[in-house]
Amino acid sequence: MKWITREHPKIDRIACPWLIKRFIDQEAEIIYVPFKEVMTKAESLPAIPFDVPGVEYTHHQDRCTFDYFISKHKLKDPALDRMAAIIRGADTDRQDFAPQSAGLEAIFSGLAQNIPDDQNLLELGMTIYDGLYTWAKDLYSKKHTQGPVEQLLVQVFHQYLKENKLKKTPAWAKELKDLIQDQMDTNMVLSLQQASENLEINPAYLSREFSKYFDDLSFGDYIRKLRIDKALNFIDLSAYSLTEIAYLTGFSDQSHFTRIFKKHTGQTPSTYKKNRQKSKADPNS
User: Rounded mean pLDDT of the chain?
Assistant: First the structure.
Protein backbone atom coordinates (compact mmCIF):
# COMPACT_ATOMS: atom_id res chain seq x y z
CA MET A 1 0.00 0.00 0.00
CA LYS A 2 1.25 3.48 -0.87
CA TRP A 3 0.88 6.48 1.43
CA ILE A 4 1.62 10.03 0.31
CA THR A 5 2.11 13.36 2.06
CA ARG A 6 3.89 16.71 1.87
CA GLU A 7 7.66 16.90 1.43
CA HIS A 8 10.15 18.12 4.07
CA PRO A 9 8.67 16.13 7.00
CA LYS A 10 9.44 16.87 10.62
CA ILE A 11 7.37 15.34 13.41
CA ASP A 12 3.91 14.07 12.48
CA ARG A 13 4.86 13.16 8.88
CA ILE A 14 7.61 10.91 10.22
CA ALA A 15 5.66 9.59 13.21
CA CYS A 16 2.74 8.49 11.01
CA PRO A 17 4.92 6.44 8.59
CA TRP A 18 6.58 4.85 11.62
CA LEU A 19 3.15 3.90 12.97
CA ILE A 20 2.04 2.57 9.57
CA LYS A 21 5.12 0.41 9.10
CA ARG A 22 5.25 -0.90 12.66
CA PHE A 23 1.55 -1.51 13.33
CA ILE A 24 -0.53 -1.30 10.13
CA ASP A 25 1.40 -2.33 7.00
CA GLN A 26 5.03 -3.43 7.22
CA GLU A 27 5.41 -3.26 3.42
CA ALA A 28 3.97 0.24 3.10
CA GLU A 29 5.64 2.69 0.72
CA ILE A 30 5.89 6.27 1.97
CA ILE A 31 6.00 9.01 -0.67
CA TYR A 32 6.87 12.67 -0.10
CA VAL A 33 5.99 15.23 -2.80
CA PRO A 34 5.46 19.01 -2.95
CA PHE A 35 2.21 20.08 -1.30
CA LYS A 36 0.53 21.06 -4.59
CA GLU A 37 1.14 17.61 -6.04
CA VAL A 38 -0.16 15.48 -3.16
CA MET A 39 -3.73 15.03 -4.33
CA THR A 40 -2.96 14.53 -8.04
CA LYS A 41 -0.20 12.02 -7.27
CA ALA A 42 -2.45 10.26 -4.77
CA GLU A 43 -5.02 9.71 -7.51
CA SER A 44 -2.59 8.64 -10.23
CA LEU A 45 -0.45 6.20 -8.20
CA PRO A 46 -2.86 5.47 -6.38
CA ALA A 47 -1.85 6.27 -2.80
CA ILE A 48 -3.59 7.28 0.41
CA PRO A 49 -2.93 10.94 1.30
CA PHE A 50 -2.26 11.92 4.90
CA ASP A 51 -1.47 15.03 6.96
CA VAL A 52 -2.86 17.42 4.37
CA PRO A 53 -6.05 19.49 4.66
CA GLY A 54 -9.31 17.98 3.45
CA VAL A 55 -8.43 14.27 3.66
CA GLU A 56 -9.45 11.60 6.14
CA TYR A 57 -6.03 11.04 7.71
CA THR A 58 -5.26 14.52 9.03
CA HIS A 59 -5.63 16.77 12.06
CA HIS A 60 -9.01 16.80 13.81
CA GLN A 61 -9.67 19.55 16.36
CA ASP A 62 -6.63 19.60 18.69
CA ARG A 63 -5.52 16.10 17.65
CA CYS A 64 -2.79 15.51 15.10
CA THR A 65 -2.69 12.92 12.31
CA PHE A 66 -0.85 10.41 14.49
CA ASP A 67 -3.83 10.48 16.88
CA TYR A 68 -6.22 9.80 14.02
CA PHE A 69 -4.25 6.77 12.82
CA ILE A 70 -4.43 5.28 16.32
CA SER A 71 -8.19 5.88 16.54
CA LYS A 72 -8.99 4.78 12.98
CA HIS A 73 -7.08 1.50 13.21
CA LYS A 74 -8.17 0.84 16.82
CA LEU A 75 -4.62 0.47 18.13
CA LYS A 76 -5.05 -0.24 21.83
CA ASP A 77 -1.59 0.28 23.29
CA PRO A 78 -0.80 2.50 26.31
CA ALA A 79 2.71 3.10 24.94
CA LEU A 80 1.25 4.52 21.71
CA ASP A 81 -1.03 6.76 23.76
CA ARG A 82 2.00 8.10 25.65
CA MET A 83 3.79 8.70 22.36
CA ALA A 84 0.70 10.40 20.92
CA ALA A 85 0.67 13.04 23.66
CA ILE A 86 4.35 13.82 23.06
CA ILE A 87 3.96 13.95 19.27
CA ARG A 88 0.78 16.03 19.50
CA GLY A 89 2.48 18.58 21.73
CA ALA A 90 5.55 18.81 19.50
CA ASP A 91 3.56 19.00 16.26
CA THR A 92 1.01 21.58 17.44
CA ASP A 93 3.39 23.75 19.51
CA ARG A 94 1.61 22.71 22.71
CA GLN A 95 4.45 21.53 24.88
CA ASP A 96 2.06 21.48 27.84
CA PHE A 97 0.65 18.18 26.51
CA ALA A 98 3.81 16.34 27.59
CA PRO A 99 7.19 17.49 28.98
CA GLN A 100 9.04 15.49 26.30
CA SER A 101 7.33 17.41 23.45
CA ALA A 102 9.81 20.28 23.45
CA GLY A 103 12.74 17.89 23.08
CA LEU A 104 11.10 15.97 20.24
CA GLU A 105 10.37 19.20 18.37
CA ALA A 106 13.96 20.37 18.83
CA ILE A 107 15.40 17.06 17.59
CA PHE A 108 13.35 16.89 14.41
CA SER A 109 13.72 20.59 13.64
CA GLY A 110 17.48 20.12 13.74
CA LEU A 111 17.42 16.89 11.73
CA ALA A 112 15.16 18.43 9.08
CA GLN A 113 17.68 21.24 8.71
CA ASN A 114 20.63 18.84 8.44
CA ILE A 115 19.11 16.11 6.22
CA PRO A 116 17.60 17.43 2.96
CA ASP A 117 16.66 13.97 1.58
CA ASP A 118 13.20 13.06 2.92
CA GLN A 119 13.72 9.30 2.68
CA ASN A 120 17.02 9.49 4.55
CA LEU A 121 15.33 11.59 7.21
CA LEU A 122 12.51 9.04 7.44
CA GLU A 123 15.00 6.19 7.87
CA LEU A 124 16.66 7.95 10.79
CA GLY A 125 13.29 9.03 12.18
CA MET A 126 12.14 5.39 12.25
CA THR A 127 15.03 4.59 14.58
CA ILE A 128 14.24 7.57 16.81
CA TYR A 129 10.59 6.58 17.10
CA ASP A 130 11.58 2.97 17.81
CA GLY A 131 13.54 4.31 20.76
CA LEU A 132 10.66 6.52 21.88
CA TYR A 133 8.28 3.56 21.73
CA THR A 134 10.62 1.42 23.87
CA TRP A 135 10.80 4.23 26.41
CA ALA A 136 7.00 4.69 26.36
CA LYS A 137 6.48 0.96 26.81
CA ASP A 138 9.13 -0.09 29.33
CA LEU A 139 11.09 2.89 30.65
CA TYR A 140 8.72 5.84 31.04
CA SER A 141 8.46 5.43 34.82
CA LYS A 142 12.21 5.26 35.35
CA LYS A 143 14.27 8.37 35.98
CA HIS A 144 17.83 9.08 34.97
CA THR A 145 18.50 10.06 38.59
CA GLN A 146 17.67 6.64 40.07
CA GLY A 147 21.32 5.66 40.58
CA PRO A 148 23.04 6.52 43.91
CA VAL A 149 25.57 8.89 42.34
CA GLU A 150 22.92 10.77 40.39
CA GLN A 151 20.71 11.00 43.49
CA LEU A 152 23.58 12.47 45.48
CA LEU A 153 24.24 15.06 42.77
CA VAL A 154 20.57 16.00 42.66
CA GLN A 155 20.52 16.33 46.44
CA VAL A 156 23.52 18.66 46.31
CA PHE A 157 21.88 20.65 43.54
CA HIS A 158 18.67 21.16 45.50
CA GLN A 159 20.42 21.98 48.76
CA TYR A 160 23.17 24.32 47.61
CA LEU A 161 22.64 25.46 44.04
CA LYS A 162 19.02 25.72 42.98
CA GLU A 163 17.90 28.40 45.40
CA ASN A 164 20.69 30.82 44.50
CA LYS A 165 20.48 30.08 40.79
CA LEU A 166 16.78 30.85 40.53
CA LYS A 167 16.93 34.11 42.48
CA LYS A 168 18.09 36.11 39.49
CA THR A 169 15.43 36.64 36.85
CA PRO A 170 16.94 36.55 33.34
CA ALA A 171 16.57 39.53 31.03
CA TRP A 172 14.36 37.60 28.60
CA ALA A 173 11.80 36.91 31.38
CA LYS A 174 11.53 40.62 32.17
CA GLU A 175 11.21 41.45 28.48
CA LEU A 176 8.57 38.75 28.05
CA LYS A 177 6.50 40.15 30.92
CA ASP A 178 6.45 43.53 29.15
CA LEU A 179 5.54 41.85 25.87
CA ILE A 180 2.67 39.92 27.47
CA GLN A 181 1.40 43.04 29.20
CA ASP A 182 1.38 44.90 25.88
CA GLN A 183 -0.74 42.14 24.40
CA MET A 184 -3.09 42.11 27.39
CA ASP A 185 -3.69 45.81 26.86
CA THR A 186 -4.56 45.32 23.18
CA ASN A 187 -5.82 42.13 21.54
CA MET A 188 -5.03 39.53 24.25
CA VAL A 189 -3.52 37.20 21.63
CA LEU A 190 0.05 35.93 21.96
CA SER A 191 1.32 32.47 21.09
CA LEU A 192 4.45 30.79 22.37
CA GLN A 193 5.86 30.86 18.84
CA GLN A 194 5.25 34.62 18.52
CA ALA A 195 6.87 35.25 21.88
CA SER A 196 9.93 33.17 20.98
CA GLU A 197 10.31 35.06 17.68
CA ASN A 198 10.06 38.45 19.39
CA LEU A 199 12.60 37.44 22.02
CA GLU A 200 14.77 35.49 19.55
CA ILE A 201 14.68 32.48 21.89
CA ASN A 202 14.13 28.86 20.91
CA PRO A 203 10.45 28.00 21.59
CA ALA A 204 11.37 24.66 23.17
CA TYR A 205 13.69 26.39 25.65
CA LEU A 206 11.11 29.11 26.34
CA SER A 207 8.40 26.51 27.00
CA ARG A 208 10.67 24.58 29.36
CA GLU A 209 11.89 27.59 31.34
CA PHE A 210 8.71 29.69 31.36
CA SER A 211 7.11 28.33 34.54
CA LYS A 212 10.20 29.15 36.64
CA TYR A 213 9.55 32.87 36.29
CA PHE A 214 5.77 33.03 35.77
CA ASP A 215 3.97 31.77 38.87
CA ASP A 216 4.87 28.11 38.21
CA LEU A 217 2.42 28.09 35.28
CA SER A 218 2.82 26.97 31.68
CA PHE A 219 2.71 29.64 28.98
CA GLY A 220 -0.89 28.82 28.06
CA ASP A 221 -2.12 28.70 31.67
CA TYR A 222 -0.42 31.99 32.47
CA ILE A 223 -2.04 33.77 29.50
CA ARG A 224 -5.45 32.34 30.46
CA LYS A 225 -4.97 33.54 34.05
CA LEU A 226 -4.25 37.08 32.84
CA ARG A 227 -7.34 36.98 30.63
CA ILE A 228 -9.50 35.96 33.58
CA ASP A 229 -7.94 38.65 35.77
CA LYS A 230 -8.86 41.21 33.14
CA ALA A 231 -12.37 39.75 32.84
CA LEU A 232 -12.83 40.11 36.62
CA ASN A 233 -11.81 43.74 36.35
CA PHE A 234 -14.32 44.32 33.52
CA ILE A 235 -17.12 42.71 35.54
CA ASP A 236 -16.32 44.82 38.60
CA LEU A 237 -15.75 48.15 36.88
CA SER A 238 -17.67 48.19 33.59
CA ALA A 239 -21.17 47.83 32.20
CA TYR A 240 -20.12 45.41 29.45
CA SER A 241 -22.18 42.26 28.95
CA LEU A 242 -20.51 38.90 29.57
CA THR A 243 -20.48 38.25 25.83
CA GLU A 244 -18.64 41.54 25.26
CA ILE A 245 -16.21 40.77 28.07
CA ALA A 246 -15.46 37.35 26.56
CA TYR A 247 -14.63 39.05 23.25
CA LEU A 248 -12.58 41.81 24.86
CA THR A 249 -10.48 39.30 26.79
CA GLY A 250 -9.62 37.21 23.74
CA PHE A 251 -11.85 34.15 24.15
CA SER A 252 -13.13 32.50 20.99
CA ASP A 253 -16.69 32.02 22.26
CA GLN A 254 -18.89 32.36 25.35
CA SER A 255 -18.73 28.68 26.32
CA HIS A 256 -14.91 28.68 26.27
CA PHE A 257 -14.88 31.83 28.38
CA THR A 258 -17.34 30.31 30.88
CA ARG A 259 -15.35 27.08 31.19
CA ILE A 260 -11.99 28.79 31.81
CA PHE A 261 -13.55 31.38 34.13
CA LYS A 262 -15.11 28.66 36.30
CA LYS A 263 -11.84 26.73 36.38
CA HIS A 264 -10.02 29.77 37.77
CA THR A 265 -12.68 31.21 40.10
CA GLY A 266 -14.92 28.27 40.98
CA GLN A 267 -17.95 30.19 39.66
CA THR A 268 -19.51 30.85 36.29
CA PRO A 269 -19.20 34.45 35.05
CA SER A 270 -22.93 35.03 35.51
CA THR A 271 -22.88 33.77 39.11
CA TYR A 272 -19.82 35.87 39.90
CA LYS A 273 -21.45 38.95 38.37
CA LYS A 274 -24.68 38.44 40.36
CA ASN A 275 -22.75 38.00 43.60
CA ARG A 276 -20.70 41.15 42.93
CA GLN A 277 -23.84 43.17 42.16
CA LYS A 278 -25.51 41.85 45.33
CA SER A 279 -22.41 42.74 47.35
CA LYS A 280 -22.37 46.30 45.99
CA ALA A 281 -26.09 46.74 46.69
CA ASP A 282 -25.68 45.57 50.28
CA PRO A 283 -22.54 47.14 51.79
CA ASN A 284 -23.14 45.27 55.07
CA SER A 285 -23.05 41.85 53.43
Answer: 84
